[in-house]
Write a structure and sequence with these properties.
With about 180 residues, the protein is an all-alpha fold. The protein is built from 9 helices and no strands. Among the domains are: about 70 residues, no CATH class; about 50 residues, no CATH class. The longest helix is centred in the N-terminal third of the chain and has 15 residues. Pfam families: HTH_23 (PF13384), HTH_33 (PF13592).
Length: about 180
């Protein structure tokens, strides 16, 4: 059987409810909701079914509250450091300068080419998606002009752009006229 857990707080049920209602962060709001319902006399199993969590998580939140008070129930995701950048600031600047020049194989820079450049500098494989991410991080893109068909008629295209109704007639007239 699960260990019985109770909310050890000087706050009344109404004060916990007020904290729950005034919380702006959704995670902290849920934590206050759990504490309020526990103070009201609900069991962890009841609270879990009401809020969509497990009874174990409800007990964890109550234990955090009992141990650390309000600091225990804040949204800890905001304090997580996250993974460090793969490239140092100097390497990012070097990449930015490299992107000003055409790539070694010609063409345009894209995610796989940036990933290959990074792999060469880092001495390990780099996923092409990460190359694209670094392109975006540096404010770059692979935007290019739309390809033109070699046999396209510029006059007909311009006539079509004028207006939808008149453009079609003009385009037909241009395409029927002998050159």
């Amino acid at each position: 059987m699960a260990k019985r857990v109770t909310v050890q707080a000087d706050l009344t049920s109404q004060e916990l409810h007020d904290h729950y209602r005034s919380a702006t962060n959704s995670v902290e709001r849920t934590h206050w909701h759990i504490l309020w319902l526990m103070k009201e006399g609900h069991t962890p199993d009841e609270i879990a079914s009401l809020l969509g969590y497990t009874a174990r998580w409800v007990r964890t939140i109550v234990q955090r509250w009992n141990r650390a008070g309000e600091q225990g129930i804040v949204d800890h995701r905001l304090t997580l450091k996250g993974a460090p950048c793969l490239l140092s600031v100097e390497q990012q600047q070097e990449l930015d300068h490299a992107l000003d020049q055409p790539p070694a194989d010609g063409g345009l820079w894209n995610g796989p080419k940036v990933a290959a450049w990074m792999a060469q500098r880092l001495g390990r494989p780099v996923d092409p998606r990460l190359g694209w991410e670094y392109l975006q991080r540096l404010g770059r893109s692979t935007c290019v002009l739309r390809p033109q068909h070699e046999q396209s008629d510029q006059g007909a295209q311009q006539a079509l752009k004028k207006t939808a109704r008149g453009g079609r007639k003009a385009a037909r007239a241009v395409s029927r006229s002998p050159d």
